[in-house]
Specification:
41% of the residues lie in helices and 12% in strands. The chain has 329 residues and is α/β, with parallel strands linked by helices. β3, α6 and β4 form a beta-alpha-beta unit. The protein binds 3-hydroxy-3-methylglutaryl-coenzyme A and magnesium ion (MG).
């Protein structure tokens, strides 16, 4: 029997999940990565533009084919993303290096659309609220006025060949208004789809949903005649429910899931919004279920570890912590 101490395993060699398929789940999931936008909009310190560009390049190199890059919102409302005009030119050439890569940007109004079109943006997203209070706090409009603001944006973008995603926030609960009725969510979500958004992302902005609510809401959209292929889910992990909610959504047929590398983010205008579902935790679960994502988990973890180093604090992602341990950043 050898008396030599067992070698310390290299943390990164410990783990990739052992895939076992489970019934009723898709073969493939498209991850809509929101870290550079939804994550970095919430950082108290301003992140240099070259760091943002490098982060996006690393995420694309890790195999993420949709990376939300920034927002053309009012710079005073979200100063963290006020450098959008400097960032977008730095991303030119990235889609050629990673065929199929899409780099959507958030646009709230026609002024934002003009800015996006000036940079030949191919994908934008408008962002509505299922509640009045959040619409006023986030967009300075009632929920109906916000819809009226988006309509010409979607029409002009579509006419220019730009693809438009619609976000709907506060789909399960609102910090000011409490639980949000499913009919209200389906009504506003339906308006975004009807005005021409190709995809609707249902946001649990403050992370209060539980899986039964997710199934019920998706059943409600199906009953209203909305094909599940047009729906995406956007979970926050405030109460540790984001992965359970994702699994419930997959069982209902959803195949597009939003997530944020390293679990970055929240929302500057939503009291109690904490981190988004971490992309690494999502990928661990999906690959463990034998679901294809096209993502190289090790490269993704390395990118988030690098970003954590830039931000000067460890990533809250459990998978990043497990795989990088004390070596983060
Ligand atoms: P407002 O103050 O009502 O704007 O803000 P306005 O239309 O009255 O215009 C006032 C001035 O702002 C004008 O300039 C406009 O040109 C200018 P002036 O004529 O006085 O010189 N302006 C702009 N400048 C640059 N870019 C623009 C723009 N628009 C107007 N796009 C507004 C209304 C919608 C602009 C503002 O409320 C805003 O920017 N809100 C965005 C807030 C935000 O980005 N929040 C975070 C988004 S995340 C989210 O919603 C949740 C999500 O992540 C999903 C989830 O997690 O659940 C998507
Ligand atoms: Mg979010």
């Amino acid at each position: 029997m050898s008396t030599a101490a067992a070698p310390e395993p290299d943390a990164l060699d410990l783990g990739l999940p052992d895939p076992v398929r489970a019934p009723g789940l898709p073969e493939e999931v498209r991850i809509h990565e929101v870290g550079p936008r939804d994550g970095l909009q919430n950082e108290s310190a301003l992140v240099p533009v070259e760091v943002k560009a490098e982060f996006i390049a690393r995420l694309a190199a890790a195999g993420l084919n949709t990376v939300e890059a920034t927002s053309f919102v009012h710079p005073k409302w979200v100063p963290q993303l006020a450098d959008a005009e400097e960032l977008v030119p730095r991303l030119v050439g990235l889609p050629e290096r990673h065929p199929g890569l899409r780099l959507p940007v958030l646009v709230p109004n026609e002024r934002g659309l003009d800015r996006a079109l000036a940079h030949h943006t191919a994908d934008i997203a408008v962002f509505a609220s299922a509640t009045e209070t959040f619409a006023r706090r986030n967009l300075n409009r009632s929920a109906d006025e916000a819809m009226a603001m988006f309509r010409p944006v979607v029409e002009r973008a579509t006419a220019a060949g730009v693809r438009v995603r619609g976000y709907l926030s506060m789909c399960f609960g609102d910090p000011w208004e409490g639980p949000v009725p499913a009919e209200q969510v389906i009504r506003f979500g339906g308006q975004l789809l009807e005005m021409g958004c190709t995809e609707l992302s249902l946001g649990d902005t403050i992370g209060v949903a539980t899986p039964g609510q997710v199934t019920a809401l998706l059943d409600g959209f199906a009953a209203a005649g909305v094909p599940v292929g047009r729906l995406a889910v956007h979970f926050h992990d405030t109460y540790g429910q984001a992965l359970s909610n994702t699994l419930a959504a997959l069982r209902s047929g959803v195949t597009t899931v939003d997530a944020s590398a390293g679990g970055l983010g929240g929302c500057p205008y939503a009291k109690s919004a904490t981190g988004n579902l971490a992309t690494e935790d999502l990928v661990w679960m999906l690959h463990g279920l034998g679901i294809r994502t096209g993502v190289d988990l090790r490269a993704l973890v390395a990118a988030s570890g690098w970003m954590a180093g830039q931000l000067g604090r460890p990533s809250p992602s459990r998978t990043v912590q497990a795989l990088l341990g004390a070596n983060q950043g």
